[in-house]
Amino acid sequence: MDCIDEATKIKEEALKALMDVKEEGQLGLFFAAYLAKKGAVSGLMSKMKEIPPELRATFGAAVNAARKAVEEVYLEKKDEIEAWKLKKKFESEKIDITLPGRTCLPGGKNPYHVVIDEVTKIFLDMGYEVAEGRDVESDLYNFELLNVPKDHPARDMQDTFYLDGMKELLLRTQTSAAQAHAMCEENPKGPIQLICPGKAYRRDDDDMTHSHQFAQIEGLVIGEEISMANLKATLELFVRKMFGEKREIRLRSSYFPFTEPSVEVDVSCFNCGGKGCSLCKGTGWIEILGAGMVNPKVLEACGYDSKKYSGFAFGVGVERVAMLRYGCDDIRRIYANDIRFLDAFQGK
């Protein structure tokens, strides 16, 4: 009966922990700790082999009852947080109609927003949802759930801004963290189809092609029988909508911890039509984004059954697209607030 008592103890511990949850980030951490596949509640079933046969039915019922009780309170807490967020949003967006009108001078839209808006529209038309995530992330969502554990070599490629005195909080190095949140919070587990636009941060040199702050748009699709063919078809449609109907893509083998297998994606040069020019360095191809099939380890870490579900992910750099499309020679111009630069984008 010790294991049955343990199920009751973990249930009470989880319910007590839920009482201290006040915001969405804490709710995600709670889910990973208790309700994810390797969480404390779900992990009780792994002890079934230790139970005498005559007590297994009783133990299974106790575990199921514990999980049901925790999930019910978890969903209530989630609804409560969502309602609180909506209330705050309504309060912050109130408009004072007694204020005098303001004259708005026409201006140009920053290419940062031009590219994000255009890419977002393309994927919204394809049935995707948008998840923006947050700039400050935990190590769990930014790295560990994405198959980048502590001391993993891939962390060296993402030299990071950690918050002073808070080793587990950092400025996110990739918008994939928003995908990890979406996978963990999907309950019950089911298909996901979303894009995650936003800023990311890495300690990088500031020069013509690098910045400590940059923007990404990452996409994630999870479902049953998702294959590399689905990924290729999706990227072909995106590239033709973004760069022209005559564009072709090619996939080159690569490596990303989040995906396996992984590919770099090139698009046929939209300046010369693939014949070779200075923009594509004479090759006829331009590297545009990275992609691949979601690593089964990531699916399992976020609570998905990797034998039932598969998926693909991709990521495109916003500034890279803007620089290629508009001939911008310095990434710093996009963030410099120079009106002369922005005037070039009026009407775009």
What does the secondary structure layout of this molecule look like, with pairings?
Elements: H1 2-19, H2 24-35, H3 53-92, H4 111-125, E1 129-130, E2 136-138, H5 139-142, E3 162-163, E4 166-171, H6 176-185, E5 192-201, E6 213-223, H7 228-243, E7 249-256, E8 259-268, E9 285-294, H8 296-301, E10 310-317, H9 318-326, H10 339-343
Parallel strand pairs: 1-5
Antiparallel strand pairs: 2-4, 3-4, 5-6, 6-10, 7-8, 8-9, 9-10
Helix pairs in contact: 1-3, 2-3, 4-9
CATH third-tier fold name of the largest domain: BirA Bifunctional Protein, domain 2
Mean pLDDT: 85
Strand order of the largest sheet: 1-5-6-10-9-8-7
Could you tell me the radius of gyration in angstroms?
24 Å
CATH superfamily of the largest domain: Bira Bifunctional Protein, Domain 2
Bin the helical content: 25-40%
CATH-defined architecture of the largest domain: 2-Layer Sandwich
Q: How far from one another are the termini?
A: 69 Å
| Strand segment tally | 10
Q: Profile the largest sheet.
A: 7 strands, mixed
Number of helices: 10
Estimate nothing, just give the exact number of structural domains: 2
- Estimated share of beta-strand residues: 15-25%
The topology string of helices and strands comes to HHHHEEHEEHEEHEEEHEHH
Brief summary:
39% of the residues lie in helices and 20% in strands. The protein is of the alpha+beta class and 348 residues long.
Folded structure, characterized:
- It is a single chain.
- By secondary structure, this protein is of the alpha+beta class.
- The chain has 2 domains: 2-92; 111-343, BirA Bifunctional Protein, domain 2 (2-Layer Sandwich).
- The chain has helices at 2-19, 24-35, 53-92, 111-125, 139-142, 176-185, 228-243, 296-301, 318-326, 339-343; strands at residues 129-130, 136-138, 162-163, 166-171, 192-201, 213-223, 249-256, 259-268, 285-294, 310-317.
- The strands form 2 sheets. A 7-stranded mixed β-sheet has the order 1-5-6-10-9-8-7, with helices on both faces. The protein has a 3-stranded antiparallel β-sheet with strand order 2-4-3.
- A hairpin with a 2-residue loop joins β3 and β4.
- The model has no long low-confidence stretch (mean pLDDT 85).
